[in-house]
What we know:
It is built from 20 helices and nine strands.
Amino acid sequence: MATAVRHLMSTPPVTCDADASLAEAADLMNSHDMGSVIVTDGPKVTGIVTERDLLRAAACHADPLAEPVHLWMTANPDALDPDEDAAAAWASLTHHHYRHLPVVEDGILVGVVSIRDLLSVAQIRPADEAGTDLPRGLEGVVVAETTVGDVRGHQGFYHYRQYSAVELAASRPLEDVWQLLFDGELPDQRGANAFATEVAVLRTLPDRVASQLPSLASAGSPLDVLRTSVSLLGAELEWRPTHDIGQAELRHQALQLCSVVPTLLAATHRLRIGLEPVPPRQDLSYAANYLWMLSGEEAPTDHVRAIEQYLILTIDHGFNASTFAARVITSTGADLAAAITGAIGALSGPLHGGAPSRALDMLDDIATPGRADAWLRAAVQNGDRIMGFGHRVYKTDDPRSLFLRGVARQLGGPLVDFAERVERTAVGVLAELKPGRQLHTNVEFFAGVVMHTCGIPRDMFTPTFASSRTIGWATHVMEQAADNRLIRPAARYVGRPPPQLVPAR
Length: 505
Ligand code: ACO
């Protein structure tokens, strides 16, 4: 639309004074085939009365012969300039839900413009279009209410329930945090023992899943195998749609799923390298058992605790892409396995969970601290993303990265020193070449360093992340299922205007 309001308005406008009756206003509208009358006091616009006002008055049984328009009009209405672009006028009318506006030039009323006038040059668009535009990537858009946790990007803080996630990682075992998420409370010693026993017995793979795993294990990456085997698990255990089951049944499925995922992962890893899976042990904690099943050896205590802390830190993190995916799938009433399979798919992307192995690949490629500046500079100038840096929500240090840097330091070793030097250089290069973007180290950078130092193979980094995140996803699935409404947003169609004739062949 490049037409000015001047060319679309009705002129001269139909006017009356404030003491005219509703019946007189209705007669004017009728005789001029107009939907509104401008109320004036000499040359000054004091109000506008529209068909809608007449309807309101009729609905209130107002006497049209006795009631003056000033009681029903919109006083001191907004006005348009005749040279205003019709598109801007359209936006203003739809935004404010006006149907008619006076047009005023140099303080003098020159016309009136209506939605109907503007429609003559407008494309047909949804009536509720105004106000529905959302930022790309839904950045900052609130799509649900949750009691699971949240992220405060500008403060560098995130929490599970009412507790700082970092404090939980510093002070509690993973099972306690798992229980906090599932049941809403941190356990006391007795509750913790009972929960640990409850989940440890669920670690064994169902026979029909264990027997099919060897034929699946080399199909794609370990994360692909996890995605497929979670789907298989749900089918073999005949998990019913969340729509059809109660919270107790869903909680039991969720406990079993979270307990079995490390077993699936470790078995997959061993089958891929030609080794027999190591059965889970019930006497070990979640993290110790995971490392045991991967290598067949009991891991040193500092490695167990480092991995446990990494796992706690990554259980949940606001409405990230995979969590949202899990909730969208749950909102259809689909079963738990469907929701988690979809979430694993979302996590696999390099912009989400696929980054830690790539961050380590980058360290390999840089090779020596002296090459870092040139390598990183060239990558950013080439338009590449530096893996392990930047975050949609954090505009300051990612608290998970700060914590994991400390964990990595405690573990020690040459890779840790090198990673810290590359980190410093990367932050400087990003600040210089991407000023104002607030790009800091995210969880993935030191995650790779910690997992590598503790002996987790590189292709198992993202699957290990998926293991702890399954606890978070499952918590969200339960929350969504408990108070569900189908998540079904809309998109703006921007293709060629329909309907067009379907061409003959
Ligand atoms: N390296 C270089 N430039 C970057 C990086 C990065 N790691 N991250 C963002 N930028 C730049 C973008 O090029 C863009 O620059 P421009 O304004 O000149 O176009 C600007 O910063 C904003 O980037 P967006 O893509 O709009 O930021 P968004 O919030 O969508 O992306 C994301 C966040 C995907 C994490 C991004 O920072 C990234 O790609 N990082 C690297 C991958 C990574 O580490 N992923 C793991 C994230 S943590 C997790 O999911 C568990």
